[in-house]
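dude i think i finally got it to work??
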Amino acid sequence: MFTPQLTTLLALAAAAVALPAIPAGHSTMAMRLGMDCNNPVQGLSRDDCNYLRDIGFAGFGQNPTGNSNIWIGGNGPNVFTFTNKANADVTLIMWDQSLEYASSFVAAHAPKITYSIPRGGQVKLSLQNGVSGAYSAIYRGQTKLSQWGQVGNTWGEFTTGDWATINISREINMAGNTFVAKVSTGCVADMNRCSFVCKNNANTCGDKGTYDLIGCAGQPNGASGLDWLGQPAGGCQGWSNGSGRIDAEFL
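look at this
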């Protein structure tokens, strides 16, 4: 579920305070944090790195291959397989909640993962139990950041471990690209199933009472209800503590 706008603004403001001053002659956060696209992290192409820098990313991800809560590879307790079925090259973006709500503000904080997936390509990510976060995709030449400095596209949101759950959120951009997340135990989250959508034909939302969770009822391991604020909550379950796998597609 997308963070309400007030919390969003507070988190972004707090994130900005921690950034160092801009050296003379430099104007982007990417430059502040040393986003050197002549030497991008392994797994991120130079072209994709340049595009992330140009649209305002603070930096590229770590793309660890082990010894982390999220890493590249399929040998962990929870495995997400990302497949690019779109007619474009994409960059997988994933962040955890190590900075709580501020983690999603990629204009202020580098995400955990920035990994290039060409058309028809695939990558596996492993996650430890007890990890909460989200992922999105940058379609090169198409996707921009939102006015808040978040990825202005569809998101997939997840929690691993006990009561592991995944959903699709369209709250940032109802006109975003089509994402599908299939749990190996049967539940599907996509643009119309186990998906958070804006009410009243709004293109973006997040405040209390402005969104719904649709399409979970009747699905195997689909869960929907209300959170402690009385707002819609839920998603695809049935994969607690590594008991299932996630196949995620970008269309």
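The first strand starts at residue 70 and ends at 72.
im so relieved honestly
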